[in-house]
């Protein structure tokens, strides 16, 4: 569409259109209609170009990479030495995306300028201005991308030879030396050939966008682009000033777009003008303009008096005088919908709050700390509980010589450092912040503005902790005792004591009022523990070695305080050291007052236990952590009784249809109990008390969580915790049922599906994984369409910055989503294992999947999707190549893998919401890291890229005639060359990914079969080697690769049998881990290896080396040995699944009786065990169905002629 509208506008911009435009003043003439049509075409063209920008992949390296601080493009992410050709191959798609973005925005600017010229409307001038700024940003990205490409294209000095005889290695033999030099020459020649092809591709990309194609012309091109970047902000300022800047003369004779436009300029109009100034570095001018903007009247409640009307604020910290007030015209009124629809652009004037925020940021960036502090104080008088304002005030007041405040720093959480290590603290500013917070607290108490909805302000009180933490952070983290001792003179002990007192003070005040009290204090508790232990890991280890008696007094003081709090506020009738005088002496007669008091006591109890857990978890030695828990935390039975007591006196959840879904306040106790049990079970050092098994602890946690979910079915944290426990126990079916009850939908699929997607693969629920992954792809496809329309609607209504936010969100967050990439990989891997009968029957009722028969009882491998090694694979491979061209189709992952030079070169945005696990304190659920997802996704892309190329290469092969090798054709040579290049990239990836022994062996087996296919079809495929001219030579070369495949499969068998042999675990845990391993190996490597083997067998049969000739033809016999090795591996996997199925064995009753107790009924444990056994049985049936099918199919290799 962009190309179509560009051609249309180019045609309409011809001279005839200009002449018709000059005659448009004649009423009713055709010229007027032409100009109106021309304006419509220009507007539609802008819409088409803007929509096209949403499809440009981001050229930034990684928008969410927190580990790298450099801004050096691709180079900052390199962790291994990568050949320049590989880097250039990965860089060309980014260069193409950057050029496309520049092209679309250039067209947008051209259309916007023409539209403003034709219509003369203020909105269209603003369009031209903001698009010019966007165009400049895209040009800057293009320059950075071109510079990297230019550096990769420059000739580099050739490295010295590293062949077999160098580096002081003892010479072995002339044959080994020659073979080593031949291998080096082969690799060098392949790199040179690939480099030549990539340079041609670079020229094609440059020529496609009308840029010079020669490398020597790139520096001059970069200079021209820089000159254009310098002009664009000036043009934007000139265009935007037509809308927002009042003409110097106020004479009534003045006319044109400058006449009194500033009086009604909207917030977006001013923002465009300010952005144009900031793009030129005119911050002082921007500050001056921003201070003079008149804001909308908006009366609000303030603390301490002062100007409470936006219209009475001059933007410089004071009230406007009478002359300004009389000169200020009233803002446009909105009476009905017609006023909005008839207005061109936005009608919303600048809001005082946003204006003051921008004034504060600009002042801080310019080093005007006092002025910035004044603005933040003004904001805090109106919004005293806005924590980001307090953080910004502390930063600009306390950090001597501190940098500017950015949007990112303002949105940072309380755990981020307000005073980085090494920065000096301004004592005067520090004291002013403390005094101001105390003033706000006093004034809030005086005017009763501090209570909103029954909750007292927390921000001013939290400032006291942040101020102490600022000074503690200043010293940084010390790794040696000498450095720690050197800081004692700085008053560390006094600061630690102050922080301890402030934490206790805050906890005493807000723990009964706010459930989030611990979340507020959590970062400060960690700072306290680390600084109290000299901020030294070795010191903490020394404390652990000496025992509890050597814990610093300040830490013991806080632990004792927390223990006294939970003991005092315990409301159960049984427990360890319970204060039976639990109820207050004076209790009001009303039931509501009694419930309020009980709820406060329950909150104090929960808060105190959370503090004990958090302090104990700061020590690395888990045995020492358990000692602290046993001493200072209540027992699990005590906490369970406390939870049950809360159920008896607090109202139960009884949500009506359409009503609010409530949760019970005692749910936090069960989460704490589950954390305690999971910590106990996951720590190998603690398993001696559990007979070496973590299963009883996990079963107990699952039973308690199930019971809590029954009482509080709308608490998402209970369900997330239960999913984690069932995934450890092998109950994938139940985990899926709980996930479905969460009701995850829409954008949450991208942020929360990570909770269940890996669990489905580990549990063999391949069809459910396909459904979930497909829903994620559909979400991204529909979002891409919707965002385009919404973005232009915002743009058309004058909300240009909202439009840019939507485009940026789509390009940098959604299009490059890590979960989208993972979903593509899951779909491709699991496609051959799909069970069609489960597609429409994936609902779970009452916690058990509805099954009419055994899952997968008569399901064929790759019955509907994927490859299975038969003749139908060729048609599917050809269709898959077509589907791969659509970005939101799963096969496009093949291109993603081919275009990535390294794992770290993968552009991705990690949109997973890890905050849903905020309840985890002692035990953190292990989720896939960003790098692990990247490795798994790229592995899938490489494996399927090899399969597609191998199948299509075999499809192009022809049988020999009269014992002679068929002559190579252009298509056959291209197919084999493509497969060889893909094989080189796959092996490079394998070296970087550092796969384990099993994965590496199976990966190598797949690659060796690809080598065999290339040799059979095209000979060696390398120009420097002697060509293979006879079938006998092909046999010898092919057998070598097939024999290597057999050895690798046997190595994988041995490695699989020794998996987890060094892990201290019980038989339950070992069978569970091995079963999960098999469920992952099946789609990742076993099915692809089976497809490669069957594909090679079809090719061998074409050359007269069929399966029935294994005794007479050497290649057939070698391939039959590989098939036998794979068959034995499949038998081993089936044996593992039979053990995985028998959870608990004959000791199920004794296991249940050992776990149950007074706090947990045996029926609850039986319920959990039944869920796990049912799920494992279904998993075994599914996996065995496919393993047995492949095993039976491989029997055909044993048939004799």
From TrEMBL:
PANTHER family: N-ALPHA-ACETYLTRANSFERASE 25, NATB AUXILIARY SUBUNIT (PTHR22767:SF3), N-TERMINAL ACETYLTRANSFERASE-RELATED (PTHR22767). It comes from the Eukaryota. This is Nuclear pore complex protein Nup85. Residues 313-327 have a biased composition (Basic and acidic residues). Residues 185-194 have a biased composition (Acidic residues). Residues 11-30, 159-197, 313-341, 405-424 are annotated as: Disordered. Belongs to the MDM20/NAA25 family. Residues 169-184 have a biased composition (Low complexity). Transmembrane segments: none annotated.
């Amino acid at each position: 569409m962009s190309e179509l509208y560009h051609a249309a506008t180019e045609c309409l911009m011809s001279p005839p259109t200009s002449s018709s435009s000059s005659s448009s003043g004649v009423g009713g003439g055709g010229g007027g209609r032409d100009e109106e049509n021309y304006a419509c075409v220009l507007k539609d063209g802008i819409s088409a170009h803007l929509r096209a920008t949403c499809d440009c992949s981001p050229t930034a390296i990684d928008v969410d990479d927190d580990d790298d601080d450099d801004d050096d493009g691709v180079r900052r992410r390199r962790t291994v030495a990568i050949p320049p050709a590989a880097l250039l191959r990965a860089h060309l798609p980014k260069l193409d995306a950057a050029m496309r973005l520049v092209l679309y925005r250039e067209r947008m600017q051209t259309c916007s300028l023409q539209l403003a010229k034709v219509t003369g409307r203020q909105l269209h001038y603003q369009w031209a201005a903001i698009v010019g700024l966007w165009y400049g940003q895209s040009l800057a990205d293009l320059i950075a991308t071109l510079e990297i490409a230019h550096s990769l294209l420059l000739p580099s000095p050739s490295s010295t030879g590293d062949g077999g005889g160098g580096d002081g290695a003892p010479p072995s033999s002339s044959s080994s030396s020659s073979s080593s030099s031949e291998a080096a020459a082969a690799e060098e020649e392949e790199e040179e050939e690939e480099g030549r092809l990539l340079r041609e591709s670079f020229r094609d990309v440059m020529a496609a966008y009308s840029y010079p194609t020669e490398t020597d012309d790139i520096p001059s091109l970069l200079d021209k682009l820089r000159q254009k970047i310098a002009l664009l902000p000036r043009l934007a300022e000139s265009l935007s000033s037509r809308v927002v800047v009042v003409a110097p003369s106020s004479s009534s004779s003045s006319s044109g777009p400058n006449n009194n436009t500033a009086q009604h300029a909207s917030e977006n109009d001013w923002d465009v003008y300010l952005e144009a100034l900031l793009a030129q570095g005119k911050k002082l001018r921007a500050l001056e303009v921003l201070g003079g903007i008149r804001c909308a009247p908006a009366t609000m409640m303030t603390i301490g008096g002062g100007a409470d009307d936006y219209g009475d604020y001059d933007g410089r910290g004071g009230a406007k005088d009478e002359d300004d007030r009389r000169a200020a015209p009233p803002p446009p009124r909105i009476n009905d919908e017609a006023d909005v629809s008839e207005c061109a652009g936005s009608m919303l004037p600048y809001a005082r709050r946003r204006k003051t925020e921008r004034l504060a940021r600009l002042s801080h960036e310019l080093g005007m700390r006092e002025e910035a502090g004044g603005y933040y104080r003004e904001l805090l008088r109106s919004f005293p509980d806005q924590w980001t304002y307090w953080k910004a005030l502390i930063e600009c007041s306390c950090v001597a010589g501190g940098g500017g405040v950015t949007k990112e720093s303002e949105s940072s959480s309380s755990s981020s450092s307000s005073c980085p290590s090494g920065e000096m603290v301004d004592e005067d500013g520090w004291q002013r912040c403390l005094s101001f917070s105390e003033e706000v607290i006093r004034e809030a108490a005086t005017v009763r503005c501090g209570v909103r909805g029954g909750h007292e302000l927390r921000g001013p009180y939290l400032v006291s902790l942040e101020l102490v933490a600022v000074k503690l952070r200043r010293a940084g983290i010390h790794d040696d005792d000498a450095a720690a001792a050197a800081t004692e003179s700085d008053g560390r002990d006094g600061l630690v004591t102050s922080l301890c007192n402030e934490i206790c003070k805050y906890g005493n005040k807000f723990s009964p009022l706010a459930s989030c009290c611990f979340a507020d204090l959590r970062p400060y508790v960690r700072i306290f523990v680390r600084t109290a232990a000299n901020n030294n890991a070795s010191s903490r280890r020394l404390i652990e070695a000496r025992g509890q008696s050597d814990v610093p007094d300040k830490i013991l003081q806080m632990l004792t305080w927390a223990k006294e709090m939970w003991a005092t506020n315990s409301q159960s009738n049984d427990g360890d050291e319970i204060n039976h005088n639990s109820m207050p002496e004076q209790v009001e007669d009303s039931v509501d007052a009694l419930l309020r008091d009980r709820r406060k006591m329950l909150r104090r109890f929960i808060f105190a236990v959370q503090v004990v857990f958090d302090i104990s978890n700061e020590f690395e030695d888990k045995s020492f952590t358990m000692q602290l828990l046993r001493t200072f935390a209540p027992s699990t039975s005590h906490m369970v009784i406390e939870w049950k007591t809360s159920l008896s006196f607090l109202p139960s959840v009884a949500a009506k249809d359409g009503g609010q879904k409530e949760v019970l306040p005692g749910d936090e106790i069960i989460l704490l109990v589950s954390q305690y049990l999971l910590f106990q079970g996951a720590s190998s050092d603690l398993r001696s008390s559990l007979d070496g098994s973590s299963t009883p602890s996990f079963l107990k946690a699952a039973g308690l969580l199930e019971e809590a979910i029954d009482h509080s079915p709308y608490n998402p944290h209970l369900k997330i915790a239960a999913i984690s426990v069932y995934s450890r126990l092998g109950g994938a079916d139940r985990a899926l049922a709980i996930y479905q009850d969460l009701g995850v939908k829409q954008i949450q699929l991208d942020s929360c599906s990570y909770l269940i997607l890996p669990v489905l693969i580990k549990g063999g629920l391949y069809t459910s994984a396909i459904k979930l992954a497909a829903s994620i792809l559909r979400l991204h496809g529909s979002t891409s369409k919707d965002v385009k329309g919404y973005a232009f609607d915002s743009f058309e209504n004058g909300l240009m910055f909202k439009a840019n936010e939507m485009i940026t969100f789509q390009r940098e967050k959604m299009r490059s989503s890590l979960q989208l990439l993972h979903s593509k990989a899951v779909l491709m891997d699991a496609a051959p294992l799909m069970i069609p009968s489960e597609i429409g029957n994936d609902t779970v009722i009452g916690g058990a999947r509805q099954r009419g028969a055994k899952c997968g009882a008569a399901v064929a491998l790759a019955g509907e999707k994927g490859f299975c090694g038969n003749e139908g694979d060729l048609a599917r491979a050809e269709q898959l190549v077509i589907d791969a061209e659509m970005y939101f189709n799963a096969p496009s992952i093949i291109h993603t893998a081919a275009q990535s030079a390294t794992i770290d070169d993968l552009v991705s945005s990690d949109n997973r919401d890890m905050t849903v696990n905020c309840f985890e304190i002692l035990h953190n659920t292990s989720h896939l890291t960003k790098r692990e997802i990247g490795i798994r996704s790229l592995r899938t892309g490489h494996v399927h890229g090899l399969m597609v190329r191998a199948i299509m290469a075999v499809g192009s092969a022809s049988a020999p005639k009269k014992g002679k090798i068929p002559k190579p054709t252009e298509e056959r040579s291209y197919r084999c060359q493509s497969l060889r290049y893909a094989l080189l990239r796959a092996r490079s990836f394998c070296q970087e990914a550092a796969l384990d022994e099993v994965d590496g062996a199976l990966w190598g087996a797949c690659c060796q079969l690809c080598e065999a296919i290339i040799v059979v079809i095209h000979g060696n495929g390398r120009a420097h080697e002697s060509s293979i001219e006879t079938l006998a030579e092909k046999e010898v070369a092919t057998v070598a690769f097939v024999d290597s495949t057999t050895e690798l499969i046997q190595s994988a068998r041995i490695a699989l049998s020794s998996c987890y042999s060094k892990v201290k675990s019980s038989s339950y845990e070992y069978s569970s881990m091995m079963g999960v391993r098999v469920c992952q190996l099946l789609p990742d490597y076993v099915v692809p290896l089976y497809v490669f083997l069957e594909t090679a067998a079809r090719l061998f049969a074409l050359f007269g080396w069929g399966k029935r000739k294994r005794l007479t033809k050497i290649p057939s016999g070698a391939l039959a040995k590989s098939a036998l090795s794979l068959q034995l591996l499949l038998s081993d996997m089936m044996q593992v699944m039979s053990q995985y199925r028998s959870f608990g064995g004959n000791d199920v009753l004794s296991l249940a009786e050992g776990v149950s107790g007074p706090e947990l009924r045996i029926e609850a444990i039986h319920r959990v065990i039944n869920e796990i056994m049912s799920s494992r049985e279904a998993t075994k049936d599914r996996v065995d169905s496919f393993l047995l099918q492949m095993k039976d199919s491989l029997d055909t290799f044993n048939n004799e002629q």
